[in-house]
Specification:
By secondary structure, the chain is mainly α. It is rod-shaped and about 95 Å long.
Length: 84
C-alpha cells in the first residue's frame, strides 16, 4: 500500500482537492454576482432628468436676446424649489 510514489499521490490528491474547492468557490461568487439586479431609478428622477435635458437643449439651440433672462428665471425657480 505504501510505496515510493505515495507522497506524490497524496500531493496530487491535495492539489486536486484545492483546485475543486477553489473552482466551486468561484462558481458560487459568479452566481451571487449574477443574481444582483441594478437599482431601479425612481420615476420622478427620470422625469426630472428629461426636463433638464429639454432645458439644456433649448439653451444650446436658442439664439434670442432673452436667453440670459430665461436662465436667471430657471435658477430662481430652482432656488425656490430647493428651499421649499
Amino acid at each position: 500500500m505504501w510505496g515510493a510514489d505515495t507522497p506524490l499521490v497524496i500531493d496530487a490528491l491535495i492539489i486536486a482537492g484545492l483546485a475543486a474547492t477553489g473552482a466551486a468557490g468561484l462558481v458560487m461568487i459568479g452566481l451571487k454576482l449574477k443574481r444582483k439586479k441594478p437599482p431601479q431609478e425612481p420615476v420622478s428622477k427620470a422625469g426630472n432628468l428629461e426636463d433638464r435635458v429639454q432645458v439644456l437643449e433649448r439653451i444650446a439651440t436658442d439664439r434670442s436676446h432673452d436667453l440670459a433672462e430665461e436662465i436667471e428665471q430657471l435658477r430662481d425657480n430652482a432656488n425656490v424649489r430647493g428651499n421649499a
